[in-house]
# Entry
Amino acid sequence: MNMKNKITAFLLAVIMVCSVTAFVLPAMAGHEAEQSADISKSVAAVTIMDQAGGTDVSSWTFTGAAGTTDADPGNSATETQDITANDKPVATLKNTADLDMRVDLTFGSWTGGNKVGKEYYSITARGTSAGTFTEATYGTPPIDIGTINSNTMKNMWLKLELLKTGGTPTSTFTVESEVA
Amino acid sequence: MYFSLYYFLGVKNMRKIIIALIIGLLCIPIASATSVDRALFCNIEGYPGIQLEENILLTSTSSADRIGYWGVFYKAVEGDNEKMNITSWIEIEPKDYTLKPGESKSFKLIIRIPENAEPGLYGAISEDANIVGHSGERRTYIRFKDADVAAAVKGEGSVAWTAFRIPVSVKVLGEPLQPKPPAPVIKLTQENITAIALIAIIIIMLLIVVMLRRRRRK
# Structure
């Protein structure tokens, strides 16, 4: 190595050391306690969708004669539930997030309560029919239906006892989710 | 099959078909929901008597207008102490909202820590509540809930609402945080960094001069 190269190497080494020192020392000295919050990435709520999971479902309606149980409600996407067929529920619950979600359901009481009776629900995996229904409790506490894995859907099937005809009872239904 | 179609239709027509297919795919409705930019507000630190503020952004990816509101929620679990329910500390502004398709709106989460709050963790049983898979350790939440405006106003049948809850926990600190004093050498260096840099440059220049002189003598 000739003199020129030695000088160049030496200069480069000195400049490197100076640069690193100037950068690191203030940063080291600046390690002070500060208020902080944990930040997660953006996530979407679990959504109520049609049978294929492509369109929003905003409501559903039960119709039938007094004294019967309506098992084929129609949703706002003009689809009808068929409890004997695979993937023909009144709605699907879709998790579009990259995270698994804990999900629960809240059945609101029906107005005109003397016209309707018990309501039943069944949550099943995709590719299945209704399976066994469970009686829903109205109001709180919500009904825990477990976890819906990231980017998957579940079928939601509903049935309602119709006690009297006439009138248009209404209710609300809430699907609530949180990061598992 | 692709190649036979390609030759049958010709290059130009095939391109048109591909472009139309791409446009068509873009027009297919996508699963929609209201999304939030933060899913967890855990281990927020603060002192008794102070007010903490955090921003939250909601975005609608729905194809229709949404109407909704914010609220607080406490998940009661048997055996919990009074530190778990901090819903009375929390406020969200504004509380009510409407979102048009694709619209985003910003909200403020305000947490007022009472002056008599003892140091410790509030709103969750563990600091791990902010970790995915630890939902059982969360107690206090904020939540937004919304529905299709037309369906909510019409109110026919069973109106479907979607809600999302976000855990909130606060670490109440005991005494004000003092900045950690840096080590004496680091402090001295930090305070005199400009002078040190200048001295280093001068030394380098002197070394260069000395080396050049030696070289000439040779």
